[in-house]
Amino acid sequence: MAVVGGNGKTGRAVRGALAGRGVTSVSIGRAEWPHLVDALAGCAAAYLIAPNMHPDEPSYVSEALEAMRRAGVPRVVYHSVAAPYVPSMPHHLGKARSEDLVRRSGLTWTILQPGAYLQNLDLSADLAVPYDVDAVFGFADLADVGEAAAVVLTHEGHLGATYELASRVATPAELAAEAGRRATRVDASVEHPWLEAMFDYYDRHGLPVGTRTLDMLLGRS
Known about the structure:
Blueprint: E1 2-4, H1 9-20, E2 26-28, H2 36-40, E3 46-48, H3 57-71, E4 75-79, H4 90-103, E5 108-114, E6 127-129, E7 137-139, H5 142-154, E8 161-165, E9 168-170, H6 172-178, E10 183-185, H7 193-205, H8 212-218
Parallel strand pairs: 1-2, 1-3, 3-4, 4-5, 5-8, 6-10
Antiparallel strand pairs: 7-9
């Protein structure tokens, strides 16, 4: 198995979950990108992760898909995001366009759409976030995302499927209270307009995602 973008936190989680199933994987990062076809050669499938906030994710995904076709990789699992079709979040729309490329790639495919990572919230101290602390989210635990990726990569029945993934539904305030912390909203100045747009959307709508799909994939009752 290949994990394209395998050196980041998501890629490491996917590779760890595959290793736990006795599956060997190869991590493909920036160093391998100039020789992507060679790096992918002999792989039965690839898990495709774009760099966070990539300025042109469809181009990145298109290049990776072309390399997979040339290398003879028959199957791709694309790491997308929950609610990709949100016009007010440009980086989500980049993933929506990339999903379309994956579906039309000629490869067999599966798409995973995880919610916001639980690990993005630092609950070792009082929590401060630049959006409503009572907004509802479907949070995804990074380890669960890795396990879900390993399941769809190694089991039949997931071709042509798109799965939203969340480990639990909660508000930031609820998570902070469970950890014995306070949660407050702060006005944070951000340099990237996409982050500003994301925080504004979270402030108004949160990012709710159901948990049943992930439970099904991981065999939870």
